[in-house]
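Dear colleague,

Thank you for sharing your sequence with our group. We've completed the structure prediction you requested, and as agreed, I am returning the results in plain text so they can be pasted directly into your records. Please verify that the sequence below matches your submission; if there's any discrepancy, let me know and we will rerun it promptly.
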Amino acid sequence: MTQPDPVLAPGLITRQVGPDNLETPFSALSGELTSPGAHYVRSHFPVPVLDAETFTLSVAGRVAHPLQLSLGDLQAMPAQTRRITMECAGNNRVYLPQKARGVQWELGGVSTADWTGVSLAAVLERAGVQPGALEVVLQGADRGEMTDPLPSGGEIHYARSLPLTLDLEDVLLAYEMNGAALPPQHGYPLRAIVPGWYGMAAVKWLNRLEVIDRPYGGYFQTVDYARWEGRGDLPPERVPLSAMHLKAQIARPAPREVVSLGRPYRVTGAAWCGQGTPQTVEVSIDGGQTWQPGRWTTPAQTAVWRLWELDWTPEQAGPHELLARAVSSEGEMQPAHHDPGRGSYEITHPIAISIVVSGADAAQENP
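Please find the predicted structure tokens below.
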């Protein structure tokens, strides 16, 4: 099977061209599942042209039996389908108090899809991981040269590692998205899906697994997609990003929306986290001075966002700031402000959505 044509929904917001980085209009959130064409797209290098008929996944390194697996070999193994919410680690970057490097995501660097594939654990079990192994490096076929935040010293492949202590039974090597072959922009013919982790771990166009006996120090593990973290009395050190932090986010009203004074309006949104599930959600319609509980409209599911709503009748005209915040089943809470140690990543403080309440007949009504 030759590479299919990309399918992109109208309304995707272009954040970068060459390679394309596309944001989902979060205000269009209407259900748990995002269509492949509307799912946000994050790429570092041009989309490689790959053929499923000649594709192979190499498994090498600290394994007893190095493997060369075709797509057919992988599809012949026991499959599982998981609904997973994936968020770019830089989502909401535009809302940082100071302009930061990187793709200028607003609210839509997050989406949810059904992914079908074989577990990473099953593939590594077939290869036979040797004693002393520490991590598995996942490498994509995409490649290019990085200049920001630092030069990469020539062309490199996109690659990230996962610790072997992670539950690799949950990690998918996916070949289908929402019941169909992966679109090119989402990693055709094979990609990784790491439930509960930021999207940088979900390596696209996956063509190599290498088991190693040391911490991986690649570009996208240390230079990028890492944060500063203090360890006792020693200076802070770079730590790779991993699990998503808790976040609640407002879909409607959208930023700068005009709503009608005195008319019922349904505030909607979603909350998600990497560990546990969102347990409670609160909404403020006065810039954080007071909070009221929202109600869930979807059940709690591990690694899947949970949709919520709040009925509100605006009683005062003029500018308003709406915020949402959540608490997880693990007791995680959103910070009031962004942690500078996270740089331009892991932006999880409540995002203020500025709107206007108007008594004019032309005010936009809630659909």
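Summary note from our side: The chain has two domains: 13-240, 247-358.

Kind regards,
the structure core
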